[in-house]
Amino acid sequence: MKPDIYPRDDYDDLGRYLPDRSPIAADLGDNRNLWGAHPAALAVMADAGTAVASEYPDSYADELAAAVAAKFGTSPGNVTTGAGGTGVLDALMRAVAPTRMRFMDPGWPAAGMLARMNGHEPVPVEWERALEDPIRFAGSQPCIAYIANPGNPTGEAVPDDWIRAVYKHTEAVGSVLIIDEAYGEYHRSRDDLTPFEMALEGERTLCVKTLSKAYGLAGMRAGYGVGSESLVLEVDKARGPFVVSGVTSKAAAAAVSSDSPWLDETIAETRVNRERLIDRLRQRGYSVPASAANFVFILRPDDRLEPETRQLESCGVRVRPFAGTTARGSGLRATVAPWDRMQRLLDGLDLVAAGRA
What we know:
Helix content is 43%, strand content 15%.
């Protein structure tokens, strides 16, 4: 009997990723920047002409890579690019021979999906147990270790000392470490480059950043990774050419290089509204972990997730439900937004709690 090469057995329980994009008054479901898009990127898009549509882009988004290299004081050879942070993660996982991918649970569900897509076995490590022992989290055998900081969906930050302990171990045992800083701007000061410095010190560590969050460029699909030249080369081999369009590379480079106050101002307002929202939720009796991201996570029992999500939809508010393997990972995730939408969320929760939604 001939082996059946299609479809892949390890794809059996994968599906399409299809979040709800239908219009709603307050869409708080996908953690993008709800203050808009970076003005420097918008200016590039407004000036784009025929050439960006009719000509091939640079094979590896040279303008974006150069802008990122200048930001971190390194060489473009230390920078890979992709279609969002997701594209960079996909290429890195494709560059690594099939192995295990260890990650903190609760964690970003798409990381496990990307691992499976590229032939890796996702291995969740319960959050508290991981933090108790960074070496146990990373494992004794070569693997991929994935750290999102802050974490998603909870928004909780991971201590840099803990990450450094993982980093030293993964570099020593021959693992590949991914530090995903998708929401780093909401957690770190502008001059705190700690995870990127780690990646540049090592040989097998990549620090990944998307421009979909703080920069507001989710629709343009721009992201980058910073690491050793040898690792970046292997990621670029797996990535392939022409992944990032010319206008995206130019617009993202303009945003990264810009001295506009827009980024700092929207981050500052996000942080203020985040803490205000957490306070109002806790006053109402909800359990909400401290968040270092641009979203909050309202812990809820599994049997309340779908009903409350539907009831909030009826109030014009969209959140993202997560059913975790532990109580820590079960809840409703809501993106932080201008306060009128935060008030709409609070009003909706009040109606749900009163049985009037």
